[in-house]
Each structure stands twice: as C-alpha cells, then as structure tokens.
Amino acid sequence: PNDYETNDGIDEDDENDNDVVRDKSAGVERKTEHLQCTFLDTPGHVHFYQMREDSARVANAAILVVASDEPELMGQTIESINCLMDMDVPVVVAINKIDLKNSDPARTRSLLEKNGLLQPGFCLGGVEPEVVEISAKTRQNLSRLERAVYRAIESRRPLLAWGDDIPAEGVVIESSSSRQTGALLRVVVTAGILRVGQSYTSGL
C-alpha cells in the first residue's frame, strides 16, 4: 500500500474516491486515492475450507464480513473464523447491513466473541482483530473499513520481502489458455518485483 494519511476529524465516506476494477476471475483489484490491493473473494457457502485456506495463505490480511441482522452466525462464518485462526492472519471484521431496522451489531459482536474471535487480548497475525460497522448498500463507513484494512496490512510490512535485489515469487490463483495467447496465469506476487520480459517457472 501507499503511504496513508488520514484526518481523524473527517469521515471520508466519499462515493467518488473509488476505482474498482472487476472481471470474472478470482481476483478483484481495488484502487483508491491511498490504497491499492488485490482481493481474493471466496464463496459465501460452507464446506469451502480449502479454498479459504489457500487464499489466507497468500494474503497479508483478511476481511470477515458478517451480517448484523442474523440471529446466529452462519455456518460459513464459523468455518471462516476457524480457517483464519488456523492460518493466523490479521483480520478486519466488517459488520454489515447496519442500515436495516433489525440490525443488531452488539449481538453480532457477542456471537463473534463466543466463537473466540473478539475475546479481549486475542490476536491474529500479531494484532487484535479490528471491527468496523458498515452498510454496503448505503456505503456508510466504507472509508473507515479501508483504513482498517490498511492498518492490518501495515502490521505485516516487516514480514514482506520487496526490493530490486529479491527474486520474484508468487502464487498462481488462476490459469487459462487460448490459441491466441497460449498459457495465461494470474499470479499474486508474494515477494520481490515481477517485471515484463522475465521468465519464471511454475509448479507444485
């Protein structure tokens, strides 16, 4: 991420400061004025533990989205919590749907605490999970969520390996082929800098 400067006296929930690039692949690239990162979105269904684990393994931080209008945690939410605990990755919890009349963020926090995620002093990836209450529909507090994600990523900066003298390494998240281009790989670079014209090998 780029250097991130904020004014704590201003709620910067602008609708026009986001440039989101989407396609049908596994990765979603989000650009804002201060932050550029790639999201690996996993299916919102239970029994996708391996896919979530693979994503968490290459991520610098994770966002756990939980609906605040549900009386209990969904099965996929509990599975995701278990996966994040196993992988020990920094987590930002986004409590969503706070615009609804039956929204109860306090209940959601309590459910997350009962499942071990928000207990006092509990850390993942060396930091305590940060909670942001949001509405994806009205865009309320999305900038606060962005800042929380930035802080989570920053907590991992000492562990990241970047520099001109470091060979690039990465993880293939998707592959395809065509007669026009041949084999095409979508890669998350986890170390070093990947440059045009360089050759690399890929395999298990």
Explain what this protein looks like in three dimensions.
A three-stranded antiparallel beta sheet has the order 1-2-3, with no helix packed on it. The protein has a three-stranded parallel beta sheet with strand order 4-5-6, sandwiched between helices. The chain contains four helices and eight strands. A hairpin with a 3-residue loop joins β7 (169-178) and β8 (182-191). It has 204 residues and is an alpha/beta fold. Helix content is 23%, strand content 25%. It is elongated. α1 (49-58) runs parallel beside α2 (75-87).
What is the mean pLDDT?
79
Q: How many extended strands?
A: 8
Low-confidence runs of at least 5 consecutive residues: 1-26
Rg, nearest Å: 18 Å
- Percentage of residues in helical conformation: 10-25%
Instruction: Characterize the overall form.
Output: elongated
Biggest sheet: strands, sense, closure?
3 strands, antiparallel
Number of helices: 4
Strand percentage, roughly?
Answer: 25-35%
The succession of helices and strands, N to C, reads: EEEHEHEHEHEE
Strand order of the largest sheet: 1-2-3
Distance between the termini: 29 Å
Helix- and strand-based class? alpha/beta
